[in-house]
């Protein structure tokens, strides 16, 4: 298990994210939520202004910037917490970096536009490259794989090489297997069961399992409310940590921080 697993707290300034859409669209509410996540122990705040839930509609660049950048600037004005911008668009990443973000979390793995890898290199930021089959509007329609672990691993290896070829420093690249992004239940479970194969590529791994639908699929009694999936989310997160995940992207920061403290204490007692 890597030391000091980082906790990335989610702040969605969107009207339609799957778990908290609309809750933090108001700038004051978003900043208050960011402050709560910092107080709860978040190492990173991930600011998202375009939903990437299954079936989500795209958001224009100007709207995305208008939602995200003032919040990033407000957080940076009062805290030195690391800030990540969750976007596919290079122009949004540029604006976010200018406001104080130091991480580009890209569900499209720098494929949204031809200049994305070069922009990442120019910004000098850390970059999270995520696997997604298809695009948000259609990714859950009928995802198919021959060997999901091998295919996701090969894709992430190729995208890391493309980023480095464009000038992104190797030590600034993170990989994310994209749990729930163009994947059925069996695909998600296979990736979690063999996450060490992704970690074996030699890049730190960011894992996002928080409140995702696969938890409800495994426990239908929990119902469909995303905030009823905490226990399953923590179980999947800790399995990911055991397999080598270096950061967890979560909605429930305080609970994740507590789980990691207990996990670390048990590991230290060995």
How is this structure best described in words?
The protein is α/β, with parallel strands linked by helices and 270 residues long. The chain has a single domain (6-269), classed as TIM Barrel (Alpha-Beta Barrel), CATH 3.20.20. It is built from ten helices and eight strands. It has helices spanning 27-40, 61-78, 90-99, 116-123, 148-166, 185-193, 195-199, 213-218, 230-242, 253-269, and strands at residues 6-12, 44-48, 82-86, 103-106, 126-130, 173-176, 206-207, 247-250. Strands 6-5-4-3-2-1-8-7 form an eight-stranded parallel beta sheet, covered by helices on one side. Helix 1 (27-40) packs across helix 2 (61-78), helix 2 packs parallel to helix 3 (90-99) and helix 3 packs parallel to helix 4 (116-123).
């Amino acid at each position: 298990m890597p030391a000091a697993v980082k906790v990335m707290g989610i702040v969605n300034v969107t009207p339609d994210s799957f778990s908290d859409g609309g809750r933090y669209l108001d700038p004051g509410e978003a900043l208050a939520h960011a402050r709560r996540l910092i107080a709860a122990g978040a190492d990173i705040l991930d600011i998202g202004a375009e939903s990437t839930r299954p079936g989500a509609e795209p958001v224009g660049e100007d709207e995305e910037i208008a939602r995200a950048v003032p919040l990033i600037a407000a957080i940076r004005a009062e805290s030195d917490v690391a800030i990540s911008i969750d976007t596919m668009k290079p122009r949004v990443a540029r604006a976010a970096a200018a406001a104080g973000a130091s991480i580009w979390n890209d569900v499209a793995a720098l494929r949204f536009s031809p200049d994305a890898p070069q922009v990442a290199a120019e910004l000098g930021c850390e970059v999270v490259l995520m696997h997604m089959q298809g695009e948000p509007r259609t990714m859950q329609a009928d995802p198919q794989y021959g060997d999901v672990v091998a295919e996701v691993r090969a894709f992430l290896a190729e995208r890391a090489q493309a980023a480095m070829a464009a000038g992104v420093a190797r030590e600034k690249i993170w990989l994310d297997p994209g749990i729930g992004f163009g994947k059925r239940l069996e695909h998600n479970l296979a990736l979690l069961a063999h996450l060490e194969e992704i970690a074996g590529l030699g890049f730190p791994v960011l894992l996002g399992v928080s409140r995702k639908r696969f938890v409800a699929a495994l426990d239908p009694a929990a119902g469909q409310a995303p905030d009823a999936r905490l226990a399953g989310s923590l179980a999947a997160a800790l399995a990911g940590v055991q397999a080598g995940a270096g950061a967890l992207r979560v909605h429930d920061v305080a609970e994740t921080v507590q789980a990691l403290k207990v996990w670390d204490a048990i590991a230290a007692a060995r």
